[in-house]
Amino acid sequence: MHNGVSSFNQFIHELSVDSDTSSLDYSSGEDSDGMYPASPSSHSSRLSWASISANYESHWTDWITSILWWLLLPARIMLWIPLYMLQLLYRRSSRTPMSPGRNRHSSRTGFSKTNSAKEHHVPNRTTDRRRGVIEDLHLAIEIFIETIFDFFHKAAHLILSPSEACRIVFSWFSSPSSSPKGAYDDDSDDETVQTATLGESNPSPTERTTSLYNSMNTDTRTCKDVITELGYPYEAIHVITSDGYVLLLERIPRRDARKAVYLQHGVLDSSMGWVSNGVVGSPAFAAYDQGYDVFLGNFRGLVSREHVDKNISSREYWRYSINEHGIEDIPAMIEKIHEIKTAELKLCQSNADEEVNEEQPYKLCAICHSLGGAGILMYVITRRIEEKPHRLSRLILLSPAGFHDDSNFVFMLIEYIFLFFSPILARLVPAFYIPTRFFRMLLNKLARDFHNYPAVGGLVQTLMSYVVGGDSSDWVGVLGLPHYNMNDMPAVSFRVAQHLAQMKHSGRFRMFDYGSPSTNMEIYGSPEPLDLGEYYGFIDVPVDLVAGRKDRVIRPSMVRRHYRLMNEAGVDVSYNEFEYAHLDFTFSHREELLAYVMSRLLLVEPMPVGKRQSSQKGMKLKKKKEGL
Predict the structure, then answer these.
(1) Which residue stretches of 275-370 are H helix?
(2) DSSP category for residue 608
(3) Which of 155, 408, 472, 488 would give a disulfide with 581, using CB separation of 3.0 to 4.6 Å?
């Protein structure tokens, strides 16, 4: 398109006006909404039509166009048009990428903006860089029509300009190895540029690959991209669990901070959920602005399937339950946090001549959502049973999992399916995820269509809400987040889903039941799995429980059960409710909730800092007294 006018409408307009058409301005430029780049219309074609008189246009063009349409259209459709259309589609997408500065500006603006609408609170509506499937079809049709009429322009020009046609034919015979010049070389300036630069012995194909992804218009940003685009520091830490899984622990570092916060996501989520609302409404940025060193945990189960054993089979990789989240993933990440913070603060201590606690010179709080809440409770209890330090000072649990017997009919149906057909399903479906990049890309693009077409998006929202018992979360908006992209995507192993079904069926917060008393005896020391609710007395840190009155995934009654059991066990626990649905705790901008979470974080005072110099003076005085 050119200034909002498609090439088809431009061609019709040129055929219907007098010779003053040349005064109209159809110069290529960027659309006002920044959504579609300018169409690659032929410059030489416009010049040639401007040079042809109005008489030729009115008397000859219709006849020539009609003849060429019937004679050449079938062959062009079968041989030339599809290839040329795809080529133009790729050039259109890769030729006019957004500049880095402009990307950064739009991302900042989108993330900082507070959306007051009730329907969607996810900021990807303003930072979305994708095209949907319907938009791709629309663009392909536009290019198809443009290609046809561009061919007619060139054919008519050659017929009406015999000298030009002869020159092109002569160039074919004079230099057969080179491409013909003239009317067909208008796109020669857009040839693909090699990504290697002079002097590079091993050029990297990254730029070419990125252009290909951009041509598909899928949003493949990572948590790192979101954090750095907003001007915050970033650090990626790879953590290896004792059973060989490679986890990504992401960080917004404050290396000299003596208070840190660890944020853990829930099911079908990643660290992206804690930064998805940008500077204004994200818990990770709010904690950093309050002086915290922020760590963002990622459970195993991303489709990237990172493991120390590169040849691990899919069945073996997905062979884990919530147990592994609580006794493998979280311990590995928190121990890595302890290692990093202790080393950094000791370095700061030596530079600033300060004296701190050698064992743990910092305070660490945990903010967890849904499945992350169940995992952190399992972690604390099992560490206390094993008499190992858990290194946490406070737990803030947003709609934590664990108790699920109060749920709707759909969840009940899923429960019995998993319980009775698990031996068969476990062999057929090791995990629930989208295995190929193509279908992940398709979902990523469909999510864009859900936003662009309210009727389709409303239908998906209604179906998702019904499946989860009427939960009013913005499910369509969450599907549009960047971590649902073509390269990586959260997933759920079969055993995690089976473990949740076991909890719901038993009505208790238990560890995974292996189905055999002998296996349970070997792992737990009893024929039954460990009932974590009976061990809440081991929790020795304050716990803040938060529930959503509109949450139909984990109902407030289930969160209140956590509160009642903790209160009976003597835990320092608080309980609060908000008018939120399940995903509103992380994906929606809720100032009231964010203020409450920050107020609970600020109840934990950082470790006191003393001066080593004063300590040395005290030692000297003590020795002097002993000498006397």
Answers:
(1) 278-281, 283-289, 314-317, 322-324, 330-352
(2) P
(3) 472
At residue 425 the predicted structure's pLDDT band, cuts being 50, 70 and 90, is confident
If we measure between CA atoms, which residue out of 11, 37, 35 comes closest to residue 190?
Answer: 37
DSSP for 418-461, please give it. HHHHHHHHHHH-SEES--SHHHHHHHHHHHHHHHH-HHHHHHHH
d(CA 75, CA 71): 8
Would the pLDDT of 378 be above 80? Answer: yes
Q: In the numeric block, which tokens belong to residue 73? A: 């259209």
Whole-number Å distance between alpha carbons of 42 and 420: 65
Own/partner long-range contacts of 451-457 (Cβ < 8 Å, ≥24 apart): 451/120, 451/125, 451/128, 451/132, 451/476, 451/477, 451/480, 452/132, 452/134, 452/135, 453/134
**DSSP conformation letters of 88-153:** HHHHHHHHSPPPHHHHHHHHHHHHHPPP--SS---THHHH-----HHHHHHHHHHHHHHHHHHHHH
Domains detected in the chain: 7-189 (no CATH), 223-411+487-605 (3.40.50.1820)
Backbone region of residue 370 per phi and psi (left: phi > 0; alpha: psi in -120 to 50; beta: other values): left
Of the ranges 113-117, 341-345, 522-526, which one carries the lowest mean pLDDT score? Answer: 113-117
pLDDT digits 0-9 by tens, 11-61? 444 444 443 433 333 333 334 343 333 333 334 333 333 444 444 444 444
Quote the percentage of the chain above a pLDDT of 90. 41
